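Submission sheet (multi-component)
Chains listed below:
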Amino acid sequence: AQSVTQPDIHITVSEGASLELRCNYSYGATPYLFWYVQSPGQGLQLLLKYFSGDTLVQGIKGFEAEFKRSQSSFNLRKPSVHWSDAAEYFCAVGARGGGNKLTFGTGTQLKVEL
Amino acid sequence: KAGVTQTPRYLIKTRGQQVTLSCSPISGHRSVSWYQQTPGQGLQFLFEYFSETQRNKGNFPGRFSGRQFSNSRSEMNVSTLELGDSALYLCASSWGNPGANVLTFGAGSRLTVL
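Outcome: structure written.
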């Protein structure tokens, strides 16, 4: 069975600083990988996804993520954080042939200092 | 294009009661998935439906059930509620046959069990 680890529960960055959120997965083959963001009282919004091909994927709101098979990682990055990026971020993995079932990490709460 | 609509948004029940939550997917989407989100267990997959058939089920007791109607709308039911069922229940829809389709989430139904 697949699993996802997000080692950082809380991260605080200053507005304008760069951001990297870590995600490590466990899966026997090449997985489907996702990053979602959740604002308080809201559902999940998809930031980006990796299915195959180019290992650097671009998403919405200026986010990008890089799939590194050798490290089983899919870290999320943004070069310059905005105060509106404060939210909880979830990494998720889906199994090929596993339908739409996603396994989520425990999330990283991002705080942005002005 | 309307998003995924979940009703009710908030509800309070007492132990032993049952509850039904509703989800209307994005128009044209035929697959619906349900997730439970709690502070302790995080986001966990409940089940998914496509063409009125349950295609996948998570590791939840039989008190949790669901169905999908011919118009793709879905309901989930929890019987004999327990305190631990207090959670945010998220519904997600996607357009096609389950299989790493991009999920669009609703805002959720927050259930409090007293």
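Remark: Chain A has a mean pLDDT of 94.
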